[in-house]
Amino acid sequence: MPAPQGHCWLCNRFGPLTKEHIPPEKAYNNCPLLLAKVDERSTEAGSLFFSPHTNYKKGLCFHSLCSDCNNRYGSKYGGAYVDLVRTVAERIKDIPNFHKTSIMGVRRPLRILKQIMLQFVTANGSGFVRCNEWVAPFVRNPKNSQIPGNIGIYLFASNARGARTTGVSAHIDLASTYKRAVIAEFTFWPLGTVISLDGELANPRLSPCTNGPSTGSTTRGRWTLT
Question: What is the pLDDT of residue 162?
Fold first, then answer.
């Protein structure tokens, strides 16, 4: 079956779109998976309805990138992310939920962040890069370490076997501060990733993996995960 045609979600060139595994296959994303979407009727009914499941036979993947972007950036950044995932998986085996663990000496953190953003490109749909013009230059230039001041990228460890992706959504804290947040989440055991598109998040369960939105740098080598 020929590959579907379309504009690459990262570089916007038109042509065949290849399957992009998110996360990389070696990050435990090589097994059969059922993915269900929350149905829009859930809002009206007040309870969750799910659309029919999509069956992924060899891991979670989407036709989102051209072969050039898939091969170039996946191979360049995926290895560093896989190393972190395997370290986290080994570390959290005997740690109860909502407890913290420190991952020391994180290697190649900039490549990890670029892989995280590459995953958000695919997880959040074809319009994500068009709405966030900094994303493509950040991913496509291996030496680019600049992240806009209103962006925060966060990690958390998860013992729950499974995957979850939310797309970009807005949240308001009705319990106390009424603060607005525009975020997206992509979680695939054992690592969850969250991006804030509208300022810093103060959730204690999230570990910032940059030096903070105000600095725009990506130099942390020690990450504490909850």
Answer: 85
pLDDT in tens, 13-37: 999 999 999 999 999 999 888 777 7
pLDDT in tens, 98-118: 677 778 778 899 999 999 999
User: For the chain, first and last CA: distance in Å?
Assistant: 43
Per-residue pLDDT at 217: 38
Asked if residues 149 and 214 have their Cβ atoms less than 8 Å apart, the reply is: yes
Q: Burial letters for 10-29: b for 16+ Cβ neighbours within 10 Å, e otherwise?
A: bbeeeeebbebbbbbbebbb
Largest Cα span, the chain: 53
194 - beta bridge partners? 154, 185
Please tell me the distance from the alpha carbon of residue 183 to that of residue 216, in angstroms, as a whole number. 18
Answer for the pair 175, 123: CB distance below 8 angstroms, yes or no: no
Measure the CA–CA gap between 135 and 34, rounded to whole angstroms: 29
Rounded to 5°, angle at Cα 139 from 138 and 143: 65
φ, ψ of residue 121 to 5 degrees: the values are -55, -45
Taking only the tens place, the pLDDT of each residue in 198-216 is: 888 888 888 998 754 333 3
Q: Coil, helix or strand for 180?
A: strand
| 182: three-class secondary structure by DSSP | strand
